Amino acid sequence: MTKTIMLSARSGSIPDELLVVAKSEGISVEKLRERLATGRIIVLRNTKRDLIRIVGVGEGLSTKVNVNVGTSSSVVDIEMEKEKVRIAVKYGADSIMDLSIGGDIRRIRRIIMMEANDLPVGTVPTYQAYIEGVKRYGISIPEDFFVKIVEEHLKDGVDFMTIHAAITRDLAKKVLKSERIEKIVSRGGSLLAAWMLETDNENPFYKNWDYLLELFAEYDAVISLGDSLRPGALPDALDYFHIAELMNNARLVQVAREKGVQVMVEGPGHMPLDKIKVDIKLMKSLTNGAPYYVLGPLVTDIAAGYDHIAMAIGAAIAAAEGADFLCYLTPAEHLSLPTPEQVKEGLIAAKIAAHAGDIVKFGDKALKLDIEMSRSRAKLNWDKMLKLALDPEKAKSIHYQFGKKTPSCDMCGSLCAFLVLSRYEN
């Protein structure tokens, strides 16, 4: 077995990547080494890819945000996807996932990886395996073809991959006969379920888990354990199928750690506000603190057109309760492939949620910019305020939308609290 970064940490060594994370996060290297050794933090990486930004995810680290891009089966516009990547880089995404299912998937993946510059890039190899496999073999795709596509992505330098290993054939059969409102909402999970039901074979990723671990160890890349049975409707949250898959994922996490392979677990999904804390605590308990990568959660099912807001509400709570990695959602979720502007809106909403969660997790350490912004507001220092905004361009355009008439803004004008009381200050 290749000596991975996790095994190096376990042996007492300090991998160079941890020095970078320690400096950027303000945490002692020894704490990071111990957390990496036990699988409570991960570093998104692939030894085949050079010049990648070092991004740590997990216990005691700032909450990270991922942006999904990629073509659909009906809209294939590579220039638009490149623009989305540029927006993700400009506005502070920590990673990018290519979810392309239309056009030349290989070429698009490699273009997106180049456009991402030094950001870590993730993929979902199930998509390519199913699409190409059906074209070549029909629905009876050989199980080793799924694994072959994973290896192709690793060779390309993909840093982390969603692997839907925990949805077994038995769970797939049971969920489709259940009273669940939305049986399976995961695209990758549904494709694997269809393959298992058609061929009556076990999930190829579950069946070949040990071999997959050997592959990921060779490239020292990260497995993101997919949540095929995540709730897609509020009443489905924390039901039998959601928990059963989480328990399978917990077992897979343990095996991966024994082999020294970095792994994180993906989470919901749609979930009422009061169940988010329960979900986070349960997941962390079952996996002994594995990094948690959540899609939302969306806290209402009726926010179509505003799902980035529903996401931000749930994501802020999730981050505050211990989620480590947020997957953004855009206003186009459930409606359409997003435009570049919608990608920006989704990313900014997710970054607000991540920061709000970090204020709870880290207190004064995370509050520095907020305090600086508040002091600038008290002094009506607009240059500083606009500079500190997550989207300075939008903040500036709104501030000047009626012209500039007073030292304050146009909400209060001359009756601004800071202007009224400024004459009485020392």
Structure description:
There is one protein chain. With 426 residues, the chain is of the alpha/beta class. The protein folds into 2 domains: 63-362, TIM Barrel (Alpha-Beta Barrel), CATH 3.20.20.540; 381-422, no CATH class. It is 52% helix and 10% strand. It is built from 19 helices and 10 strands. The strands form 2 sheets. An 8-stranded parallel beta barrel has the order 3-4-5-6-7-8-9-10, surrounded by 6 helices. Strand 7 (222-225), helix 12 and strand 8 form a beta-alpha-beta unit. It is globular and about 80 Å long. The model has no long low-confidence stretch (mean pLDDT 96).
In a nutshell, what does this entry contain?
The protein has helices spanning 5-10, 16-25, 29-37, 78-90, 105-115, 125-137, 143-156, 169-176, 187-199, 204-207, 209-219, 240-258, 273-287, 307-321, 340-362, 364-378, 382-388, 392-399, 417-422, and strands spanning 41-44, 55-58, 64-69, 95-98, 121-123, 160-163, 222-225, 263-267, 292-295, 325-327. The protein is α/β, with parallel strands linked by helices and 426 residues long.
